[in-house]
Amino acid sequence: MAAYVARRLLLMIPTLFGILLLNFVIIQLAPGGPVEQTLAHLQGLGVDAGNRIGAGEQSDLAAGQNSGQESGYRGAQGLDPALIAEIEQLYGFDKPPLERFLKMLGDYLTFDFGRSFYSDKTVVELIIEKMPVSISLGLWTTLITYLVSVPLGIRKAVRDGTSFDVWTSSIVILGYAIPNFLFAILLIVLFAGGTYLEWFPLRGLTSPNFDELSLGAQVLDYFWHITLPVLASVVSSFATLTMLTKNAFLDEIHKQYVLTARAKGLSETGILYGHVFRNAMLLIIAGMPAALIGIFFTGSMLIEVIFSLDGLGLLGYEAVINRDYPVIFGTLYIFTLVGLILKLVSDLTYTFVDPRIDFESREV
């Protein structure tokens, strides 16, 4: 097993390299980079852009308005070339793309992800700052999904074809068909003062006076705020895991070893949880890394926007919109690395659930 783990860890290096290289090329080809956005702000006398380059350089803007110098950047006409060169240096675009990419790889090897172009914070600081929101949503969404879907899927497999199986399938499929953001809006209209009831808060993860509350009141306040976002997140998560669990158990229930166990006089409960469960749950375990990555890092962006929750999903979206390259590539590197590690953990969990599985003798 040690050799298999070592091979998988070594394979993470070219995987990370390939993903970063592909995204770096795509990002460089996309128009509207940070230099162009800053130039656009300057042309419109944007305060934020002016603050980043300093008050002294803003005088160069007026001096260069009539210079007639042309630049390769859109919106750079009439600006002083020296000012444009300083903006390029500010964002690191004074170097060729290959040199920038190699420097980024070298920094990432030491987990130095740089600073955001716009928030004046390091990428790590931003991720740590936004992570509690995404962890809250992802943790409760994953926990509730598995606690409901796995027992429900087992029950549906045992009672396959009955009225219980039919109406529960209808409910979970209906929930799957409703987009998360649409269900979130419905919850706000019904329960957050949109039109009818005002039982839950509309914004934030905690109340403004959270620090002044007692420990018990803080716990209640947290769950009061997180209820609607979690409900909106889990509504479409039940169907896939429930049907996967049902089909996995149905496939095992009809195998020969189950008939043999029944012939030996074992109870249905003993057969189901003593024999079928271990084999059927392998498929469920295989899907856990993808579910975790999807729920924690990609599945909550719209929910965060609707409920005004400042988490990782919103951070990634704003970074792409603003062309905040350090945040884009830093979060991409971290999330990809976490995903690869979770996939390896999933494979190791296979051997824990079923010791008969041996990855050591297989090719990666």
Helices and strands in order, then pairings?
Elements: H1 2-29, H2 34-43, H3 47-53, H4 55-63, H5 81-91, H6 97-109, H7 123-158, H8 163-177, H9 180-191, H10 215-234, H11 238-253, H12 256-263, H13 268-286, H14 288-298, H15 301-306, H16 312-322, H17 325-353
Helix pairs in contact: 1-17, 2-3, 2-5, 7-10, 7-11, 7-14, 7-17, 8-11, 9-10, 11-13, 13-17, 14-17, 16-17
Structure write-up:
The chain is mainly α and 364 residues long. The protein has 2 domains: 82 residues, no CATH class; 230 residues, MetI-like (MetI-like fold, Orthogonal Bundle), CATH 1.10.3720. The longest helix has 36 residues. The radius of gyration is 27 Å and the shape is globular. About 7% of the residues have low confidence.
Please give a quick description of this structure.
With 364 residues, the chain is mainly alpha-helical. It contains 17 helices and no strands. The protein has two domains: 82 residues, no CATH class; 230 residues, MetI-like (MetI-like fold).
